[in-house]
Design goal:
With 238 residues, this protein is mainly alpha-helical. 84% of the residues lie in helices and 0% in strands. It folds into two domains: 112 residues; 79 residues. It is rod-shaped, with a radius of gyration of 38 Å.
Protein backbone atom coordinates (compact mmCIF):
# COMPACT_ATOMS: atom_id res chain seq x y z
CA UNK A 1 0.00 0.00 0.00
CA UNK A 2 1.27 3.50 -0.76
CA UNK A 3 2.47 5.66 2.08
CA UNK A 4 -0.03 8.36 1.14
CA UNK A 5 -2.89 5.96 1.94
CA UNK A 6 -1.80 5.64 5.56
CA UNK A 7 -1.21 9.38 5.92
CA UNK A 8 -4.56 10.40 4.44
CA UNK A 9 -6.44 7.70 6.34
CA UNK A 10 -4.76 8.71 9.60
CA UNK A 11 -5.68 12.37 9.15
CA UNK A 12 -9.30 11.63 8.27
CA UNK A 13 -9.73 9.10 11.08
CA UNK A 14 -8.20 11.54 13.55
CA UNK A 15 -10.60 14.24 12.39
CA UNK A 16 -13.59 11.91 12.76
CA UNK A 17 -12.52 10.72 16.22
CA UNK A 18 -12.00 14.26 17.48
CA UNK A 19 -15.36 15.29 16.03
CA UNK A 20 -17.01 12.34 17.76
CA UNK A 21 -15.53 13.34 21.12
CA UNK A 22 -16.66 16.92 20.54
CA UNK A 23 -20.24 16.05 19.58
CA UNK A 24 -20.70 13.49 22.36
CA UNK A 25 -19.61 15.98 25.00
CA UNK A 26 -22.73 17.86 26.16
CA UNK A 27 -20.80 21.01 26.99
CA UNK A 28 -18.69 21.15 23.83
CA UNK A 29 -21.57 20.24 21.51
CA UNK A 30 -23.20 23.57 22.40
CA UNK A 31 -20.48 25.26 20.37
CA UNK A 32 -20.83 23.22 17.19
CA UNK A 33 -21.72 26.22 15.07
CA UNK A 34 -18.79 28.22 16.41
CA UNK A 35 -16.45 25.35 15.61
CA UNK A 36 -17.90 25.15 12.11
CA UNK A 37 -17.20 28.86 11.64
CA UNK A 38 -13.61 28.34 12.78
CA UNK A 39 -13.09 25.56 10.25
CA UNK A 40 -14.59 27.67 7.47
CA UNK A 41 -12.09 30.40 8.29
CA UNK A 42 -9.31 27.80 8.34
CA UNK A 43 -10.39 26.68 4.89
CA UNK A 44 -9.88 30.13 3.39
CA UNK A 45 -6.66 30.70 5.33
CA UNK A 46 -5.23 27.37 4.13
CA UNK A 47 -6.00 28.26 0.52
CA UNK A 48 -4.35 31.63 0.98
CA UNK A 49 -1.19 30.24 2.58
CA UNK A 50 -0.82 26.86 0.87
CA UNK A 51 0.01 26.57 -2.82
CA UNK A 52 0.75 22.83 -2.96
CA UNK A 53 -2.15 20.92 -4.53
CA UNK A 54 -1.71 17.65 -2.52
CA UNK A 55 -1.46 19.56 0.77
CA UNK A 56 -4.48 21.69 -0.07
CA UNK A 57 -6.51 18.61 -1.00
CA UNK A 58 -5.70 16.90 2.31
CA UNK A 59 -6.60 19.99 4.34
CA UNK A 60 -9.82 20.46 2.37
CA UNK A 61 -10.85 16.85 2.97
CA UNK A 62 -10.26 17.16 6.71
CA UNK A 63 -12.14 20.46 6.97
CA UNK A 64 -15.10 19.26 4.91
CA UNK A 65 -15.28 16.03 6.90
CA UNK A 66 -15.36 17.84 10.24
CA UNK A 67 -17.81 20.52 9.06
CA UNK A 68 -20.24 18.02 7.52
CA UNK A 69 -20.17 15.75 10.57
CA UNK A 70 -20.75 18.73 12.86
CA UNK A 71 -23.64 19.98 10.74
CA UNK A 72 -25.33 16.59 10.67
CA UNK A 73 -24.73 16.02 14.38
CA UNK A 74 -26.25 19.41 15.18
CA UNK A 75 -29.37 18.81 13.09
CA UNK A 76 -30.52 15.36 14.17
CA UNK A 77 -27.72 13.00 13.16
CA UNK A 78 -29.32 10.15 11.16
CA UNK A 79 -32.59 12.08 11.01
CA UNK A 80 -30.84 15.22 9.82
CA UNK A 81 -32.09 16.76 6.56
CA UNK A 82 -28.42 17.43 5.78
CA UNK A 83 -27.41 13.77 5.88
CA UNK A 84 -27.14 13.76 2.08
CA UNK A 85 -23.93 15.81 2.47
CA UNK A 86 -22.23 12.54 3.42
CA UNK A 87 -22.71 11.36 -0.16
CA UNK A 88 -20.98 14.43 -1.56
CA UNK A 89 -18.17 13.95 0.96
CA UNK A 90 -17.59 10.40 -0.27
CA UNK A 91 -17.61 11.58 -3.89
CA UNK A 92 -15.10 14.32 -3.10
CA UNK A 93 -12.74 12.02 -1.21
CA UNK A 94 -12.88 9.42 -3.99
CA UNK A 95 -11.77 12.11 -6.45
CA UNK A 96 -8.97 13.39 -4.23
CA UNK A 97 -7.47 10.23 -2.73
CA UNK A 98 -6.96 6.52 -3.26
CA UNK A 99 -10.03 4.23 -3.35
CA UNK A 100 -8.98 2.58 -0.08
CA UNK A 101 -9.15 5.94 1.67
CA UNK A 102 -12.79 6.25 0.62
CA UNK A 103 -13.51 2.78 2.00
CA UNK A 104 -11.84 3.63 5.31
CA UNK A 105 -13.79 6.90 5.51
CA UNK A 106 -17.07 5.08 4.81
CA UNK A 107 -16.38 2.57 7.59
CA UNK A 108 -15.52 5.38 10.00
CA UNK A 109 -18.73 7.25 9.13
CA UNK A 110 -20.80 4.12 9.70
CA UNK A 111 -19.26 3.73 13.15
CA UNK A 112 -19.67 7.46 13.85
CA UNK A 113 -23.42 7.39 13.16
CA UNK A 114 -24.12 3.84 14.30
CA UNK A 115 -27.55 4.07 15.96
CA UNK A 116 -27.83 3.26 19.61
CA UNK A 117 -30.45 1.98 20.16
CA UNK A 118 -31.17 0.57 16.70
CA UNK A 119 -34.03 1.98 14.66
CA UNK A 120 -35.13 1.34 11.11
CA UNK A 121 -34.65 4.82 9.70
CA UNK A 122 -31.09 4.96 10.98
CA UNK A 123 -30.22 1.62 9.44
CA UNK A 124 -31.69 2.73 6.12
CA UNK A 125 -29.57 5.88 6.18
CA UNK A 126 -26.42 3.92 6.90
CA UNK A 127 -27.28 1.36 4.25
CA UNK A 128 -27.63 4.19 1.73
CA UNK A 129 -24.06 5.22 2.56
CA UNK A 130 -22.89 1.68 1.78
CA UNK A 131 -24.76 1.79 -1.53
CA UNK A 132 -23.16 5.10 -2.47
CA UNK A 133 -19.66 3.74 -1.88
CA UNK A 134 -19.34 1.71 -5.14
CA UNK A 135 -20.63 4.64 -7.18
CA UNK A 136 -18.15 7.03 -5.60
CA UNK A 137 -15.30 4.58 -6.24
CA UNK A 138 -16.37 4.23 -9.87
CA UNK A 139 -16.46 7.99 -10.35
CA UNK A 140 -13.04 8.24 -8.72
CA UNK A 141 -11.58 5.75 -11.21
CA UNK A 142 -13.17 7.56 -14.13
CA UNK A 143 -11.77 10.84 -12.91
CA UNK A 144 -8.28 9.33 -12.72
CA UNK A 145 -8.64 8.07 -16.29
CA UNK A 146 -9.61 11.57 -17.41
CA UNK A 147 -6.55 13.00 -15.68
CA UNK A 148 -4.29 10.42 -17.32
CA UNK A 149 -5.78 11.19 -20.73
CA UNK A 150 -5.27 14.89 -20.08
CA UNK A 151 -1.61 14.26 -19.24
CA UNK A 152 -1.18 12.27 -22.45
CA UNK A 153 -2.73 15.12 -24.43
CA UNK A 154 -0.25 17.52 -22.83
CA UNK A 155 2.63 15.22 -23.75
CA UNK A 156 1.42 14.96 -27.35
CA UNK A 157 1.03 18.73 -27.48
CA UNK A 158 4.61 19.23 -26.30
CA UNK A 159 5.87 16.71 -28.83
CA UNK A 160 3.91 18.52 -31.53
CA UNK A 161 5.48 21.82 -30.52
CA UNK A 162 8.95 20.26 -30.64
CA UNK A 163 8.19 18.78 -34.06
CA UNK A 164 6.96 22.16 -35.27
CA UNK A 165 10.15 23.80 -34.05
CA UNK A 166 12.23 21.12 -35.76
CA UNK A 167 10.36 21.62 -39.04
CA UNK A 168 10.80 25.38 -38.77
CA UNK A 169 14.53 24.90 -38.22
CA UNK A 170 14.74 22.61 -41.24
CA UNK A 171 12.86 25.15 -43.35
CA UNK A 172 15.28 27.85 -42.25
CA UNK A 173 18.27 25.68 -43.08
CA UNK A 174 16.77 24.81 -46.47
CA UNK A 175 16.18 28.46 -47.26
CA UNK A 176 19.71 29.37 -46.24
CA UNK A 177 21.13 26.60 -48.39
CA UNK A 178 19.00 27.60 -51.38
CA UNK A 179 19.80 31.28 -50.91
CA UNK A 180 23.53 30.90 -50.36
CA UNK A 181 25.29 27.66 -51.22
CA UNK A 182 23.04 26.30 -53.95
CA UNK A 183 22.46 29.62 -55.69
CA UNK A 184 26.09 30.75 -55.51
CA UNK A 185 27.40 27.42 -56.79
CA UNK A 186 25.02 27.39 -59.75
CA UNK A 187 25.84 30.98 -60.59
CA UNK A 188 29.53 30.13 -60.65
CA UNK A 189 28.89 27.10 -62.87
CA UNK A 190 26.76 29.21 -65.21
CA UNK A 191 29.36 31.96 -65.45
CA UNK A 192 32.21 29.53 -65.97
CA UNK A 193 30.34 27.65 -68.67
CA UNK A 194 29.48 30.94 -70.38
CA UNK A 195 33.12 31.97 -70.36
CA UNK A 196 34.18 28.61 -71.76
CA UNK A 197 31.59 28.80 -74.52
CA UNK A 198 32.63 32.29 -75.54
CA UNK A 199 36.40 31.99 -75.15
CA UNK A 200 37.34 28.55 -76.42
CA UNK A 201 36.99 28.21 -80.18
CA UNK A 202 39.17 25.12 -80.48
CA UNK A 203 36.63 22.83 -78.79
CA UNK A 204 35.02 20.14 -80.86
CA UNK A 205 31.35 20.28 -81.71
CA UNK A 206 30.55 17.48 -79.25
CA UNK A 207 32.44 19.26 -76.46
CA UNK A 208 30.67 22.50 -77.24
CA UNK A 209 27.31 20.74 -77.21
CA UNK A 210 28.11 19.09 -73.88
CA UNK A 211 29.24 22.38 -72.43
CA UNK A 212 26.11 24.04 -73.77
CA UNK A 213 23.97 21.39 -72.07
CA UNK A 214 25.82 21.98 -68.79
CA UNK A 215 25.16 25.68 -69.13
CA UNK A 216 21.46 25.16 -69.83
CA UNK A 217 21.04 22.62 -67.03
CA UNK A 218 22.69 24.95 -64.53
CA UNK A 219 20.33 27.74 -65.59
CA UNK A 220 17.33 25.43 -65.22
CA UNK A 221 18.51 24.30 -61.78
CA UNK A 222 18.94 27.91 -60.77
CA UNK A 223 15.38 28.70 -61.83
CA UNK A 224 13.94 25.62 -60.10
CA UNK A 225 15.89 26.45 -56.94
CA UNK A 226 14.45 29.96 -56.98
CA UNK A 227 10.92 28.57 -57.41
CA UNK A 228 11.47 26.14 -54.53
CA UNK A 229 12.69 28.97 -52.31
CA UNK A 230 9.62 31.05 -53.16
CA UNK A 231 7.35 28.07 -52.46
CA UNK A 232 8.93 27.45 -49.04
CA UNK A 233 8.66 31.15 -48.22
CA UNK A 234 4.98 31.13 -49.13
CA UNK A 235 4.17 27.99 -47.11
CA UNK A 236 6.11 29.30 -44.11
CA UNK A 237 4.21 32.59 -44.18
CA UNK A 238 0.90 30.73 -44.24
Amino acid sequence: MPRSFFIHSLFLLSAIILTWFWTTNPELSLYNLQLIAIFVVLYFVSHFLTRSAPTTAAIDAIIFTVVILLLISSTGKLNSPLFFLIYFLLFAVSLLFEPLVTIVLTAAILIFFWPNPFFLNGLVQLFSVVLILPLSLFLGRQYLKVLEAHKQIKILKKEGEKLGQSIAAQETNSLLWLSLDFKDSLLKITHLSSELLSGLGHLTIIQKESLQKIHELSKELLKSGQKLKEKIDKETDE
